[in-house]
C-alpha cells in the first residue's frame, strides 16, 4: 500500500480517428422528419469519422497506441501493470476488449479491467480507477483505453440514418498513460453517480423487442422531447458542479483554469458549460465541428488537440470534465501539465 500523497500523473494521451470522414451532407441526403429535427441536441457537425463495419474497438485502440509508442518507445507497453478498457459497443457481446487488447499489443499486465459504465466521462472515471489501483500497490504504470464505434455501426443502418440523432455521432479511440510520477500530476478528481437516471438511456426498436431478440426493426437510442429536456438539464447542472468541487479543493477558481476539456454532446452544452464557468471560449477546447460527438473519446481527443497545437504549456492547470448517458454519472479531474517527452 502506497501513500495517497504520492503523485500520480497523466503522462500522455494518443488518439485515433477512422479514415472515413463523413460530411454533414451525407446525413442530409437521408434525413426525414422525425419530430426532433430542430432539437439543439442533434444540430449536426460539419464532419465526423465513421469506423468501418469490420473495424473493431480493439483495432482502433491498437492504432491509438501508435502515438504513445512513437514518443515513449516500444518498452512503454512492456511496463504497463494495469490495463483499463472501455468499449462503447462491445464487438463480442460477452467478452470485453481488455484481453484481446493486451494480446494484440503484446502486453502482460497484472490487472485487466473492462469498464462498461462511465460513458462520455469514462476517461475521467478510469483515471480515478487507475490512481486508486496504483496507490493500492497494484503496479507503477496503467494504460487506459477508450473506443467508440456506434457511428459507423448503429447510425449507418438504413432505417436509423434517417433519424435526427444519426447526424451527430463520431467514432474513434484514445489511450492514456497513467503512472506514479510527478511529471503531470493529477491534482484532484470528483466522481458522482446518479443511478436513478440510468434507465433513461435505452436502445429501442420499431416494433419494440428486447435488444437480443431476433425480429424486424433496427436499434437506435430512445429519445423523445421530454427525455431530451432531462438530459440537457442534467448536463447543464452536473458538469459545472463537479468542476467547482475539484476547483475548490485544489484552490483554483474556474475562471483561472488554463484549459477546460469536456465531452462534446452538442454545441449547446459546450456553450452553456463555458458560460457557467465564466471561461472565454478559447479556453474551452472542443473538436465538435470536425469530429462530432465522440462520447468517451471526446475528452482525450480534445486534450491531445490542445497539446498538439501548443495551446497548453508546462505548468498549466487543465480540467477534464463530462457527464454520461442520460446523466447517471459525472466526473472532473484536474492535472498540472508537465509537457510531453522531447
Automatic annotation (TrEMBL):
Entry-linked Pfam families: ACP_syn_III, ACP_syn_III_C
Molecular function terms from GO: 3-oxoacyl-[acyl-carrier-protein] synthase activity
InterPro entries: ACP_syn_III_C, ACP_syn_III_N, Thiolase-like
Keywords: Acyltransferase, Transferase
Signal peptide: none
Domain Beta-ketoacyl-[acyl-carrier-protein] synthase III C-terminal: 247-337
Name by which UniProt lists this protein: 3-oxoacyl-ACP synthase
